[in-house]
Specification:
It is a single chain. This protein is an alpha+beta fold. It has helices at 6-18, 46-51, 66-71, 76-96, 103-113; strands at 27-30, 38-44, 57-65, 137-141, 147-150, 169-173, 182-183. The longest helix has 21 residues, at 76-96. The relative contact order is 0.12. It is globular and about 50 Å long. It has 5 helices and 7 strands; from the N terminus they run αββαβαααββββ.
């Protein structure tokens, strides 16, 4: 079982379906992704965001799940199908500053694959790939008292806000018993 050269696949598909218009971005095997087959990463322009205008989105990378496709014996048809999906995202971000599974996305996927269906999700077998992780970090909203558990502490625990009431959220690492693991927001 060999791992295909996904960068060469990217170049070929870019020329075949996108007239080479997708910028030359890294295309990598991601060893941490377990249930998501692929992911098109992008960044937002900070300058435009501060000015209040629409943010410019820039494609930065495409990740493909090594664990999922290894579990599927590196099925080239499924890898290519996923690559096309992520490349349509990259194309729309680059050309139209558009993200998500929009009507234009669905139309492009239908034109390329010849299948009229919802192109949002895959149905690949992921049983046995994802490992159960213990949720050790408790988060609490200071406004509405909503709370929950997370697997790991956020990289930047300060500045998180509640989706419901927009109040500051705090995190506590429950695996450590000291109070130094409490991260109140800094506003």
């Amino acid at each position: 079982m060999f791992r295909p050269d996904i960068k060469a696949m990217f170049v070929r598909l870019n020329n075949e379906h996108f007239n080479g218009e997708i910028p030359d971005i890294p295309v990598v095997w991601n060893t941490r992704m377990t249930t998501t087959a692929g992911y098109c990463r992008y960044k937002r322009s900070r300058v435009l965001a501060l000015m209040g205008d629409n943010q410019e989105l820039t494609v930065t990378k495409i990740d493909m799940s090594d664990k999922l496709f290894r579990h599927l014996d590196y099925d080239l048809n499924k890898i290519e199908r996923t690559m096309i999906h992520e490349m349509v995202h990259a194309y729309l971000l680059h050309k139209y500053n558009e993200r998500g599974h929009t009507r234009r996305f669905q139309r492009m996927m239908t034109d390329i694959t010849g299948e009229y269906k919802n192109h949002r999700c895959h149905n690949y077998d992921t049983v046995g790939i994802k490992r159960k992780q213990e949720k050790k970090v408790k988060w609490t909203c200071s406004g509405c008292d909503a709370n929950g558990l997370k697997v790991r502490m956020p990289k930047r625990p300060n500045g998180h806000i509640c989706r419901g009431c927009r109040s500051p959220v705090t995190f506590v690492d429950m695996s450590k018993k000291t109070s130094s693991n409490i991260f109140p927001p800094k506003f």
